[in-house]
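Recap from last week: sequence in, structure out.
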Amino acid sequence: SFAYLDGILRRHRESAGHLAEGIDEEQKIADGLRDALRELGAQARVLPKSQLEAYRGWLMDGFEPEVIVRAAMRASKRGRHAFESLEEEVRRFASLGIRSIEAADRYNAERDALRQKTRLMLEAAGRDRKPSESDMRQMAEWLKTHPMEVILVAAERAREMQMPLKAIDKNLRIWTEKGVRTAEAARVELESRKAKREAAPTG
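Predicted structure tokens:
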């Protein structure tokens, strides 16, 4: 009957529609992965199945495609271009709860600001080098309890030290105990300590 034939045709159209949707979804996943690999500096003519599955898993976990691209940019900026480096950056974002582009951009801006402050601290301490991850972690800890201006005074004081970061940390601990919160107060405290040392009897 016509009704029977119409039902068959309708099912074929629905099946074809689902197939087209599936193909379109796979193409989006492939294109998204290629965008990330391009930023990573690890483009491939043929996308490995394992990488496609990893990318699909990230999307199912709630990551926006642009966030994965940001993760690739971070890895590439650090001179790391393997897919494993992208996976590491995505895991870092996941541990920080970063899955949207807004959160990723906010995190990157905070990191850039911290890197700049760390660079200023190293310059004040007489160290002409790029901040390492360890330097930045230490700086972040100091900033929790001390204003930037106080940290810079401690850094200037540590210029001639062989291990400046340890010297900075020592002075900051002393100033925490004494309630020193300004650069002026820090300099006064340093001069006070110096005067006491010079006044102390020798031999």
